[in-house]
Amino acid sequence: MLKYDSFYFQCPHCQAWLEGRNLKAELVNEAILYSDGKVLNDNLITTPQKMIMCPSCGHIFWVENPVEPFITYEKPDADIYSWNTWRFFGVNFSDNKGKMALVNHYKTFLKKSHYEPKKEIYMRRFLWWAYNDLHRNHQHVRLKYLLNGFMSFGVWHCNRKMILEGEKLFLKNHKDFTDNLQRLLALLEKHPEEQIDLELPEIYRELRQFDKAKELLDQVGSRTHFTNEMLRHSKWKDPRVFMVTG
Ligand SMILES: [Zn+2]
User: Least C-beta-crowded within 10 Å: which of 72, 145, 207, 243?
Assistant: First the structure.
């Protein structure tokens, strides 16, 4: 069964048709939540992509809400750029080169022009997640994952190599990662309405300000698995993104 509903819209500059996809809500039950707020379903991110670069003419435009009449659910009688051609600017996530290409896309967009705070927050959050993608499933490098039988030796070994290489790239770019997070933090503190749940303590934790992270977590009224895990990682002085549920 298809997990998505397709919709269609046109580039406002060259009128090329693009296919978009909406996750069917009733089928979202195997989601993976990470500490930085990224949610994956079937390995695909569930947060809609609001900034689009037209695969035909390169024009950049924003789709805040994919609603009619801007979009249509009726398939147009025209050539259509499939979702994969423009989703995350056509980047291939199966290797670190693709992951770095996504990082560089966001960096270039941020350098090129000035954005209103809401849009800058959106882009800096996606840049943060893109950096974290380099070592997102770091727990998979442990031998435990092989011994638990989650994956074959071949898959585990290959995956391990990619994550360890990703970790090196992450550390190599750590100054840029930190600069982006500090700017995102400043913007979110000024615009609290844009904050995602537990985003601030997570940013402080990833910036290695563990005491500040703990202080904010202590102010959260009800303890959940998420807050407990974040507290644990803060106490260990572990700044790496981790899987909360999955
Ligand atoms: Zn176009």
Answer: 72
